[in-house]
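tool_log.txt
---
The assistant was asked to compare two proteins side by side. It first ran the structure predictor on the initial sequence, then on the second. Raw inputs and outputs are pasted verbatim so the downstream comparison step can read them without reformatting.
(1)
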Amino acid sequence: MTRVLVINSGSSSLKLQILDTAVDGELAWALVERIGEPVGTLTVRRSDLAGAGAEERTADAEFPDHTAALGHVLELAKELHVHPTDLGVEAIGHRVVHGGPAFHEPVEVTPEVEADIEKLEVLAPLHNPANLRGIRVARDLLPGLPHVAVFDTGFFHTLPAAAHTYAIDRETAREWDLRRYGFHGTSHEFVSRRTADVLGRPYGELNQIVLHLGNGASASAIEGGRAMDTSMGLTPLEGLVMGTRPGDLDPGLIIHLIRDRGMSPEDVSTLLNRRSGLEGLSGARDFRELLTRVDDGDDDATLAYDVVIHRLRRYIGGYWAVLGDVDAITFTAGVGENVARLRADALSTMRGWGVEIDAEANENGTGERVISTPGSRVTVLVVPTDEELAIARACDEVLGLGG
C-alpha cells in the first residue's frame, strides 16, 4: 500500500487528507479555518478505512500561523490514531497553484525547488506564498518524509502557442514570462481521464470540454488528452465568472480606475479578487444563496445568474470551434456537480448542435453519471473531481512508490 498525506495550504486555511492510493480511499481528513484570526476552527476526521471506526472531532482555538495550525492537527490526529506515523504515510504531496515557466510536472521538493516556487510569488501573490508556507511548515514538523509539489498550471503546459500567447510586445512578454498558464489543471486532467473511463473509450481519442465550476471556475478544451485551450490566464482572474472574481474584462477598465478614478493598484486588486463576480454583482458568492434570491425575484441575483450562463455558453461554443468536434462535455466541482439548473441552462441553446439533456438524469443521481439522452450527439456527464487523489497519485509516480 502507498499512503500519502496531501496538503492544500491557503492564506488562512489548511486542508489535509491521508489517502491510500492502493484503494483510492481516504484514511483521515483535517481542516483548519480562520488561521491568524482570534478564534479558528479545527476539524479532524478518521474514516472507517483507518480502523477503529469513523470518528470526528472539532475544536475552536487560536491559530496564529500555519505552524500552530499544523501542530494542533498533528496533536489531535495522534489522539485519533491517525497521525501520519500511525498510518505509515510514505510521502507528502502539496498543491502549488502557479508553476510558472519552470515547473511542468510534479517534482520532489528540495531547497532549490522551494526557492524557485518563492520566485513565482509575483505571478500568484494570493496563492503561492500560502502554498510555500504549507510546504515549509510540513517539512519542519514532519521531517524525514519526501515532499512533492504538484502544480495547478502543469496540465496546461501543452497549450499551443496560439492559445497561450498574449498579443503584447514580444520582448516584454519574454522578459517577464507573460503568457496564459491556466489553473485547476490537476482537476481538469483528473476529470477528463475519468470521463474517458466512464465512457469506456481511449483517452487519446476523445475531444472534451471540461467545466470546473466552483467558487473558482475554469473551462478547458482537451483534444486526445492534450490541453488545447483554457479560460484562466497569467493569473486565475481571467475567464468565467466566479464567486468573487470577474473573469474576462477589458484591461482598459483597470487603467481607467487607476489613472482617471484615483484607485491604487492595491484597491483594484481587492476589487477584482474580493469584490467582483457573484459577490460584486449580487452580494451572494454562494451559489445556493444566489439561486434562492433568483427564485425570490431579486433583480441583482437574476442578472448575476444570467451573466454566468452567458459566459459559460460563450466558452463552450468557442471551445467547440477550437476542437472542431466534441465527444463529451463534463461538469465538475461544487457548482458543476450539484446545480442541475445551471447545467441545463448552459446547454439549452445547443440543441441545434445535437446536445440533448435527459431532464430526469440531470435532476437526480449522484457521483459519476451521464446526464444526456441516448440520442444526444454529444455525451454530457457529471464527474466529481478529486484533486487530492490526483496529487497522491502524482507522489506515487514521482517517487516510484506503490510498486
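(2)
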Amino acid sequence: MNNSSLYSIALNLIDKVGGVKARQLLSYCGSAEAVFKTPKAKLLKIPMVGNKIVSLIMQKDILQQAEAELEKAQKQDVQIVAYTDAYYPARLKQYADAPFVFYIKGNVNLNAERAVAIVGTRAATEYGKAFTEELVKELTPYQPLIVSGLAYGIDIAAHQASLKYGLPTIGVMASGIDVVYPAPHLGTARQMVQQQGGVMTEARFGTQPDARKFPARNRIIAALADAVVVVEAKASGGALITANIANDYHKDVFAVPGDIHRKTSEGCNNLIKQHKAHLMTKAKDVAYIMNWELNGKNKSVQQSLLFNELPKNAEEKEIVVLLQKQPQKTLSLDEISWQLKMPLSKISACLLNLEIQGYLKSLPGKKFTLI
C-alpha cells in the first residue's frame, strides 16, 4: 500500500470523523495526506470542522496507529480500500453516507455487472432456508454477486447456497475483519474467501460486534446491490432496516409473501402491503423487474447504441453517456441529477425526450436504463 493509503487510514481512525467529514476535509485540502499537513488555522475554517476534530487530527500517534493497521492487513492478507482508490465500488461510492475506508479479504469483484442482496430473519424457518437456496440456484444463469450479512438464518443460507452453486458472494460484517461473527460461520467465511468471494467491513481490526453497528452495516449491504430480496422477516429487525435503506437509495426491493399467521412472514407481508417491495415467488420475478437478459442479449443491444448517433441536445447527450458508463446501464433519477449536477426538473424533461426518442426506458423505483 502506498503513502496515500496510510494517510487515508489515519483519517479514518480519527474519532468523530466519519465518511462525510472525511470527504469534506479532502475536498478542501486536496488529499488525505494534505489534511495532516494543513495548518491548524486553515483546518478550522473548513465547515463542520471544529477545535475538537482539529486537535484529533494533530495528535502525534495517529499515523502510528495507521501503520499498525497496515501491518495487520499485510500479515492477514487484508486489503484496506479508501474512498479515493480505483477499487472502491461504484455502487457504494455514490451515497453520502458511504464509508471512507473499508477492509476486505478475498478476491471478489464488487463492481460485478449484477448484484443481489438476500437478507432475512435470524430465526429462519426450514421453508425460508429452502427458498433461499432455490432462489440462488435460479439466479445462477444471471451470475450475480450475492450480498448478505453472514448472520444466522437467511444470510448464511444465501452465502452457503452461493458456494454450492458457484456464485461469488460477499459477507458484510459489523465487526472487525479479524472478528468473524457469529463464530460458527468462520468456516463458511473462509470458503467464501477461497471461492471468488470474501468478507468486508468498515470497522477497524479487533472491533467487536454490538447492536449499534448492525444498522450501519445494513446500509452497505443495500448500497452494494442492485436489488434487495427479503425472504423472511419479523415485524421489525435488521432485514427491514436494510429494505428501508434500499428504498431510500432507490433500489428495487423484493419480498417473499408468507403465511399470515407466521411471525417470520409479517415483515415481508407488510413490505408488500405498504408498496415498499415487489411481490416475488421466483428468481424470474427479479430478472423481469431488473430487465436482465440471458445469452448477452442486453450487452448486444447496449453495444449497438455505440454505433448510432448520440442525442444532439447537450444535456440529453450527457445523460446517455453517463448511463453507458454504468455497470447496469441504469441509474435512478436522483443519481443522474446528483452526478450531472442538474436540477431534477431539467433531468425529468430530458429523460422524457430520451424515452420518446427510444434511447432509454423507465423502470420501477424512478430508474432509467438504456435500450
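---
observation on (2): The longest strand covers residues 101-105. The two ends are 41 Å apart (CA to CA).
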